[in-house]
């Protein structure tokens, strides 16, 4: 018989981030230094949905934005 606690039914970010956030801050993960020598790339993000209802269209849009940003960052551009 295992003495391990059962996994929570849902992800609880507050518990995880309380542990890791100081480490991330100390490592400088939230600080960026733009490099003016690199070709810039940016995406204009539309304002939030006023109805407060998210759809699969929102998920697809955000996923595509993430993919494009990661692709251009891998190409060496300033994203």
Describe this structure in words.
This protein is mainly alpha-helical and 79 residues long. The protein has a domain of 46 residues. The chain has 2 helices and no strands. It starts with 12 loop residues before the first helix and ends in a 5-residue tail after the last helix. The mean pLDDT is 88.
What is the fold's blueprint, element by element?
Blueprint: H1 13-26, H2 56-74
Question: Could you write a compact summary of the structure shown?
Answer:
By secondary structure, the chain is an all-alpha fold. The chain has helices at residues 13-26, 56-74.
Broad shape: extended
Order of helices and strands: HH
The helix tally amounts to 2
Query: In which range does the helix fraction lie?
Result: 40-55%
Helix-strand makeup class:
mainly alpha
Distance between the termini: 51 Å
Strand content: under 5%
- Give the rounded overall mean pLDDT: 88
Unreliable runs, pLDDT <50, ≥5 residues? none
Sheet having the most strands: none
Total strand segments? 0
Q: Radius of gyration in whole Å, from Cα? A: 19 Å
